[in-house]
Write a structure and sequence with these properties.
Elements lengths: L12 E4 L5 H12 L4 E5 L3 H13 L4 E5 L5 H11 L6 E6 L14 H25 L3 E8 L10 H20 L4 E8 L10 H4 L13 H12 L8 E4 L3 H9 L1
Parallel strand pairs: 1-2, 1-4, 2-3, 4-5, 5-6, 6-7
Helix pairs in contact: 1-7, 3-4, 4-5
């Protein structure tokens, strides 16, 4: 190497929750692929999480896995950051893990409400707090939902949790600036639900673009937010215009 050439700057560690499958898995594959050490959190997807971690290590990636129940938020945060200490100081936190509950006010019950809020909002809040204490600088991306911006009936606890996550994004963008940028992505129909629920099977008819977004769209959105240094406190809608079509149908 010539004396005037500088060595490439080492990339900091990334924490991705809910990263054993689907969107979370794609995000750790992308981030590992561009050189970040990755802390892969999962809860139930043991086999898938270990498979993707092994695959990334085979390609030269540095990956640690941690199994933790985000419903037990305080303990889970401790487990995740303890597992990630070998990777060095964190640089990126992506709060991706969530549970989806399709319940109206009359259907919701205490335990399911508490679990949804704990996993979708309390755990991300505590993870952000720990990240802010551990990181000298960095970025947080919260994976939200367009329902958090434009609520509709039928998903009470889920919608409240995602609305709270968007509010958290805006609050922390102010509180943690300029050291840490905080943004969110409000997802629409990206993938069919694994439950096979009828409302999730017709995703191609639910937005003006007449198609699902696909995982690549989420990876591209994350890449944009990570690499656009003058953006903070924003919620990027990745919906294909779904919420616009629903609003028009209600008028």
């Amino acid at each position: 190497m010539n004396s005037h050439q500088s060595k490439p700057t080492a990339k900091g560690a990334v924490i991705v929750t809910g990263a054993g499958r689907r969107i979370g898995r794609a995000l750790v594959e992308y981030l590992s692929g561009v050189g970040h050490p990755v802390c892969l959190h999962y809860f139930r997807s043991d086999d898938s999480a270990e498979q993707v971690a092994s695959s990334l290590r085979d390609r030269g990636g540095q990956v640690v896995t941690v199994k933790a129940d985000l419903a037990q938020s305080t303990e889970a945060v401790q487990q995740i950051f303890s597992a990630c200490t070998t990777l060095g100081a964190p640089q990126i936190l992506i709060n991706n893990a969530a549970i989806f509950t399709a319940q109206s006010l009359h259907e919701v019950d205490g335990p399911s409400f508490d679990e949804t809020i704990a996993v979708n909002l309390k755990a991300p809040t505590l993870l952000c707090r720990q990240f802010a204490s551990a990181a000298s600088s960095g970025q947080i991306i919260n994976i939200a939902d367009w329902r958090g911006l434009r609520p509709i009936p039928g998903h009470l606890s889920y919608t409240l949790s995602k609305a709270g996550l968007i509010a958290l994004t805006e609050m922390l963008a102010l509180e943690l600036a300029p050291r840490i940028r905080v943004n969110a992505i409000a997802l629409g129909a990206i993938l069919p639900a694994e439950t096979g629920a009828d409302e999730e099977l017709d995703i191609e008819s639910r937005n003006p673009l007449r198609r699902a977004g696909g995982i690549t769209a989420v990876v591209s959105a994350v890449d944009y937010l990570l690499n656009t240094p003058f953006v903070t406190g924003e919620t990027l809608r990745l919906t294909g215009g779904e919420e616009l079509a629903i609003q028009r149908g209600r008028e």
